[in-house]
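Re: your question from the hallway

Yes, I did run it. Sequences:
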Amino acid sequence: MSNKQLPTGTRDEFGTIAMVKEQVTQTIQTNLKNRGFQKIITPLLEYRDVFKPLAKQTYQPYQLIDEHGDTLVLRPDMTLPVARVMSATGIDTPVKWYYSGDIFRVKRRLSGSYNQVTQAGLEIIGYASLKAEWECLITASEICQQLAIPDLTIELSDAQFVAKVLNVLPINDLMQQNLKTALFAKDLTHYAKLIQPLKNDRFYPFLEAWPWLFGDFEAVLQQLTTLPQQPALQNIIGDLKKTKNFLQQHFPTLTVTLDLSVESPQEYYTGMVFKAYSQAANDYLFSGGRYDQLLSNFQQTIQPAVGLAFDIDAIVAQQALQQPPVKTLIYFEPEQWADAQALQANIPNSSLCLTDSSKAAQRIAEQQAAKLIDLTERQA
Amino acid sequence: MTLKIALTKGRTEKQVLPLLEASGIDCSAIRNKGRQLIFNEDPDFHFILAKGPDVATYLDRSAVDIGIVGSDILAEQQNTQYDMLDLKTGQCRFALASTPDFNPNQTKRKIIATKYPNITQSYFERIGEDVEIIKIEGSVELAPLVGLADAIVDLVETGSTLRENNLRIYTELQPISTHLVVNRLALKQKRSEIFQLSANLKRAQQLEV
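Structure:
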């Protein structure tokens, strides 16, 4: 193996991209810090068992064995380590965390996907109120505004909605399961076959529309009229509506859509789920939701929690990468060090040129198309 | 908004073009393509022509919104995008085939040659058998004839290639056809366009039946 090659699925980042990535991460972290969130840093290496609640088909981790034969993984997720910290340390709740770091998931080889992805996010633990979802969403929307992300769409959904609708429909467990699988996979051909025997039922128009129950908020809600009225469903819809109105009150240009046909991202999600994208994005820019079951993998007691993670790489791909301004190099004699340093501090995109001769400094300035300030000339 | 579609070139393309045309898409540029691979003339539908496994890659990386590709490739590549419509063209099936003297019940770790190692693996896992798989890139029928493998798992359309090579089918695995697959995020970004395309295709399918 050549010592010049990178392992498949990894990449170096430098120059403008690396700087934009740093700026994006800083914008997110500064915003969260200013809102009174506290920083949490967890290790890259964790025991594999920490990530048991993640559905196996959604990720493949990098694994290694420690000196006792226990399996370690490079963390494939940032939220479960926070849950581990909470259950192991007895930190008082409520508490608000922010974090940033890389997660690792092995993707299909040679597919152009990267196995190391940078995230930054927040966790609000200990608040059962809808206000926790709202702080998450308002913070994320504000950050996207600061990052000048155009035409942002936030999609709201609920982890319980599909199961609750299936429970009120007069169909047996097997049918429920089959319908759910086809619905989540958006396998329209199989789904149409499954609902065919229910053609004469009064909720058939709803079933027919269900795989397409996403998009414009009001249009989706209109499709619910044929559903049996149930308090559990009303509560979910009520919270989603309130959240949409709240968001649009604070961000009038934001598009808020609704998805009532989607699978919960992970089993531990218990309530509202949110995702955001822009029209030009190739990936979701942030996603999160309420996961009151999150800590139940580590402890007996349930702890309300809401969180959200930004996909920093997807956001960086959305940022206009500007050409850096012309660089300035400052050449000086050792005794001029203090002056050179003071000058450098006042000139943006400048740096000290550390050659021993003015000629060599000129050569470097030409190579880099940089402006050269030669302090030795000033002295003369 | 324009829908970007990757169409599997070759047989799949030929079989699916009449359906696309019946759904209202002008495919004349593709029909008279010469060596062209990208078709951007229609403001509503941009097409690229690619090999089946590459259609899945373009779709995964969001280079296109929609892929039209065989369900054999989707199964082999363990597709994670929305497999929305069975277009019911290019229908064939997977089969386990071998020479007439092959005994499927023989107690040994069988050697199976195939272009589809994942599908083969999951089939034998399902029936509780462990086999050795040899990946072959083409003319898989050769493998049992020259003694490289005990049997093959391959696509069978009419069965004539197998018969000509003195091979017979022992078990039929899953059916195969051409599917319309949609990138998960593109479905959200271009909902109304994809809804319309899917409705038009369904209508065209019903007319053909």
